[in-house]
Design a protein that fits this description.
The complex is a heterodimer of chains A (144) and B (248). By secondary structure, chain A is α+β, with helices and mostly antiparallel strands. Chain A is built from one helix and nine strands, in the order αβββββββββ. Helices cover 19% and strands 38% of the residues of chain A. Chain A starts with a helix and ends in an 11-residue tail after the last strand. Chain B has 248 residues and is α/β, with parallel strands linked by helices. In chain B, β6 and β7 form a beta hairpin. In chain B, α1 packs across α5 and α2 packs parallel to α4. The chains are: A alpha+beta (144), B alpha/beta (248).
Chain lengths: 144, 248
C-alpha cells in the first residue's frame, strides 16, 4: 500500500516535470540541448524516399562508431553518442552558464510501416546516417 | 524605420575596394568563411546595418555592445557579416541597400560566399567551388582564374536578390558556391571558398587553422544553423532543386 502510494506520487511528479519542460519549450523555443539532463541534441535531417527513411545527424567530437548507440524501442529510435571532451558554451553564451555536456541524445518517432530488422547505420566524417527500410510489398502497375 | 534599411558607417572604404558577403545561408559557408577572413586579416568594424525587419536582438562580445549585422573592413575590403539568421522579408530591402551602398562607395566587385547543397557531401573530402557572374566580365574573370562557371540552375535567397539588384544596376557581382551540407555548418566548404577567393583576388589566408577548428565550429554554430534552416525553408530556397525552363 505504501509502495503504491509512493509509486503513484513518483509518476505524478515525473508527469509534472515533463509538463513543465514542455511548457518552457513552448514559451521560449527549444534549445538544442537539455540543460537539466546535460546532453546536446544533434542537428538532424530526415529524408523519405518511397523505399526508406534516411536520418542523418551531425556529431562533432564523436570519435568513432563504438561511441554511438542506436536502438529502437517501440515506435521510437534512440541515438546516444559520447562526446570526447567536456563541452561548455559558457564563454560564448550566458544562457549555458554552469552547464557542460558530454553526450548527444536524440529520440525520433518512427512510422509503423518500417522494417526494424533491416535498419543500417554508418558513421563517416562526423555524420551518422541511419537507413530505415519501409515494410510492405510494392506492386508494379501495368500501364495500358 | 518602417521596413527601411539604414547603413551607418564609422569609416569609409577606398574606391575600388571589394565587398564580400558572408551571410547565413546553406551550411553557413559564407558566415564561417567571412568571419575567418575578418579574424585573419585583423579587420575592424567600419559600420553596421539596422532595420526594424531584423530580429529584436543585439549582441555582446567581451562586454561590448554590438549590432548583429556589421560591416568589417581594412580599407581595401569590406566584409558584411551577420550573427543572426535573416528573415526572408528583410532580403529584398537589404539587397537594394547593399548594392546601393556598393555603388555609392565605388566597390569594384561584390562577392557573395555561399554553399551549394550536395547530397553526397559526406563522401567528398575537398568540396569543389563554382561561380556565378552577373556581368559578362565577371564570368570571364572567373574563367581566367580557373574557377568553373555554373551554367544553369536557379539561385535563391539573399544572394539571388543581391545578384538581381547588381544586374539591374550594372554592378559587378560574383557568387561563389562550394559543395556543402545543407543543414550542417560546413567549415570544409568554407575553406574551399577561401581558397577560391585567394585565386580570384590574391587574398591569401592559411585555411589550416580553420580546418583544425572545424569540429568546434560545427558544435558552436548549431543554434545559428537551426535558425538559418528555418528561414531558408520559408524563403523559397528549395527553388534551387528545380531545373529551369530550357529556352534560350
Amino acid at each position: 500500500m505504501v509502495y503504491e502510494f509512493f509509486e503513484a506520487f513518483r509518476r505524478i511528479r515525473k508527469d509534472m516535470e515533463r509538463l513543465i519542460k514542455e511548457l518552457e519549450e513552448y514559451a521560449w523555443g527549444k534549445p538544442l540541448a537539455d540543460l537539466r539532463e546535460g546532453y546536446l541534441e544533434p542537428l538532424t535531417q530526415i529524408n523519405e524516399t518511397p523505399t526508406e527513411i534516411v536520418i542523418s545527424m551531425d556529431l562533432p567530437f564523436v570519435r568513432g562508431k563504438e561511441d554511438i548507440e542506436v536502438s529502437v524501442r517501440g515506435n521510437e529510435i534512440f541515438v546516444e553518442a559520447e562526446i570526447d571532451r567536456e563541452v561548455s558554451f559558457e564563454d560564448i553564451c550566458a544562457f549555458y552558464r554552469g552547464t557542460s555536456f558530454r553526450r548527444y541524445r536524440k529520440v525520433i518517432k518512427l512510422p509503423e510501416n518500417i522494417d526494424i530488422e533491416g535498419i543500417k547505420a554508418k558513421f563517416k566524417s562526423g555524420i551518422l546516417e541511419i537507413k530505415i527500410p519501409k515494410k510492405g510489398k510494392s506492386y508494379r502497375v501495368k500501364i495500358e | 524605420m518602417n521596413g527601411k534599411v539604414e547603413i551607418v558607417e564609422s569609416k569609409r572604404v577606398k574606391k575600388g575596394a571589394l565587398l564580400i558577403n558572408g551571410l547565413p545561408d546553406v551550411g553557413l559557408v559564407g558566415s564561417i568563411a567571412a568571419s575567418f577572413l575578418v579574424d585573419n586579416l585583423n579587420m575592424q568594424e567600419i559600420g553596421y546595418i539596422d532595420s526594424d525587419l531584423l530580429p529584436p536582438v543585439v549582441v555582446f562580445h567581451g562586454e561590448e555592445f554590438k549590432m548583429p549585422l556589421r560591416i568589417m573592413g581594412d580599407g581595401e575590403r569590406a566584409v558584411l557579416l551577420s550573427e543572426v539568421a535573416l528573415p526572408p522579408e528583410f532580403f529584398a530591402p537589404l539587397a537594394k541597400a547593399v548594392v546601393n551602398w556598393a555603388i555609392e562607395n565605388g566597390i569594384s566587385h561584390i562577392i557573395s560566399l555561399g554553399g551549394l547543397p550536395t547530397p553526397k557531401r559526406m563522401e567528398i573530402n575537398k568540396p569543389e567551388v563554382g561561380g556565378l557572374g552577373v556581368l559578362k566580365e565577371d564570368r570571364e574573370f572567373l574563367r581566367s582564374r580557373g574557377i568553373k562557371v555554373i551554367s544553369d540552375g536557379f539561385l535563391a535567397g539573399i544572394y539571388a536578390l543581391i545578384a538581381k539588384e547588381s544586374f539591374r544596376r550594372g554592378q559587378s557581382c560574383i557568387v561563389l558556391l562550394a559543395e556543402s551540407h545543407l543543414n550542417y555548418p560546413d567549415p570544409g566548404a568554407a575553406a574551399s571558398i577561401l581558397e577560391a577567393l585567394s585565386k580570384l583576388f590574391g587574398i591569401s589566408v592559411d585555411v589550416k587553422p580553420l580546418l583544425e577548428k572545424a569540429e568546434e565550429l560545427r558544435l558552436k554554430l548549431r543554434e545559428l544553423m537551426k535558425r538559418t534552416t528555418e528561414a531558408l525553408r520559408v524563403s523559397g530556397k528549395d527553388y534551387e532543386y528545380t531545373p529551369p525552363l530550357m529556352y534560350r
